[in-house]
Structures are given as C-alpha cells and as structure tokens.
Amino acid sequence: MSCAWLNVPRPKPNAAIQLLCLPHAGGTAALYRPWAKLLPESIELVLVCLPGREQRCNEVMPADMRSLITLLGNAVTSILDRPWAVFGHSMGATVAHELILSLQGRNLCGPEHLFVSARKAPQFQEVGNLHQLDDDSLCQQLIQLGGTAPELLEIPELRALLLPTIRQDYHLIETSRVSSDQYLNCPITAMVGRDDPELTADDARGWQRWTNCHFHLHEYTGNHFYFSERPHLVINHIVQQLRIT
After folding, report:
1. Which of 25, 160, 194, 198 could bond 169 through an S-S bridge, CB–CB 3.0 to 4.6 Å?
2. Per-residue pLDDT tens for 171-222?
3. Does the active-site annotation cover 90?
4. Keywords in UniProt for this one (predicted)?
5. What total number of domains does the chain contain?
6. DSSP 5-66
7. Does residue 131 have an active-site annotation?
8. Does 137 map to a domain?
C-alpha cells in the first residue's frame, strides 16, 4: 500500500491499526521512519509524504489548507483499509485536525485517536509572520526550535534548497484558521515538551475543548522536538492510549 501521499516503510498486513504520521513545517517523513522498528506488530506505520520534499521535491505544495486537506483526504480514504489513528507534530497537528474535520463533514470514517504534538490548541493560535522573515531571521527561529542542525543552515546551497519549502509551510499554517468549531468524535492526546519555546502545557491542554471523547495531556523533558532522543516514551504512550499490545 503506497501512493504519492502515503508510504508504509514496514508493511504489517496483520496489524490491528494503522498510525498515520504528519511532519512539522519543513519536515519530512524521515522524522518518523525510525518508528517503524519501534512500534509493536499490532500497529502499522503510515507516513504522510507532503509535496516539495524528498521524492516529491519537484512538486508544489498546495497554497491553502483547504486544497491540501482535499488532496490528503482523498488519499487517506482511498488507501487506509483498517482502523487508524493519526499523530501530527507542530504543523502536522493542525493538518491532522483539519483532516478529521473534513472527513466528519463528509460523513466519512475518521480515526480512532488524534495525537497532537507541540501545537497550541486552535483557539490559542495567533497570527504569525515567520513566512515573511528574511532568510537569516527565519534560520534563527528554526535553530531556536531545535529541529534543524545549525551547520546545515550555514551552507548557502542547502539554505536555498530548504527555506522555500519551510517558508511555504509556515505561510500555509500562519494564514489559515480552523475551518469548523465541530467537536471531534475521537479521543485527543496532547503532547508537549516542557522547554518548548512555542507553547506551554496550558496551550496544549486547550485541545480538550475539541473532543466529545476523553482527553489526555503528556509532558516530556525537552524542547519543541522533545521526542527526537527518546522516541520510546512517546511510542509507549501512543500504544497505551490505543490499548493495543
């Protein structure tokens, strides 16, 4: 099972549930590939491959959230063939939320669980301008978040390659607003690093307002990319919430 939008690095045809993972602004599916070996046999990892990166580097990212969700929603509904959950980190959390709202609005089957990582609840989102910063200022912001190696951003050729995609992603999330105030028909688990410069635990706790089901909040040691060095902790919590061994 694969398409331009979705990829399964380690197929598990007998898995009980599929875990769809969405990356942060400028991020790639590579962020989650190590998870394929860490997840139990009961959970199959499905990576979202966005345009403008990796094997899709020559494709253009949709200019607005609605267009992105339409394309991604079509891929999800045509390919996922079992119960599924979704994990979105930072921008990926916003995209995951909008995807579920869209599916519910079309009376289509949504996920068993939404995991939102390092992202403020929609009611706390503020107007942003990172996509309007000059290259040096944008690089400084990326270094502060901790997800990009500073030495990579010092290489002009790599900056020229990376920054357009990052800028487009930030434009997407900084110019869009939540499309509906509808509650989600699935549980939500919010995850946040205690030293994240972008949000607090209270900002993440606000996701409780968006579900008809139960809500959990997990805090971790670390910054915006708290799970980079200890992915086992996050995966253990995902497995616990999905109640699958």
Report:
1. 25
2. 888 888 899 999 999 999 999 999 998 899 999 999 999 999 999 999 999 9
3. yes
4. Hydrolase
5. 1
6. SEE-SS--TT-SEEEEEE--TT--GGGTTTHHHHS-TTEEEEEE--TTSGGGTTSPPPSSHH
7. no
8. no
| Contact call for residues 22 and 72 (beta carbons, < 8 A) | no
Catalytic hit among 89, 113, 218, 224: 224
Question: For residue 40, what are the domain limits?
Answer: 6-128+181-242
Question: Cα–Cα distance between 166 and 231 in angstroms, integer?
Answer: 24
Residue 82 lies in a domain: yes
Pair of tokens at residue 215: 């809500």
Catalytic residue (one of 24, 89, 90, 97): 90
What one-character DSSP code corresponds to residue 211? B
**Residue the block writes with tokens 């916003």:** 94
Q: Which pLDDT tens digit goes with each residue over 37-92?
A: 999 999 999 999 999 888 898 898 998 999 999 999 999 988 888 999 999 999 99
Distance CA(203)–CA(210), nearest Å, equals 13
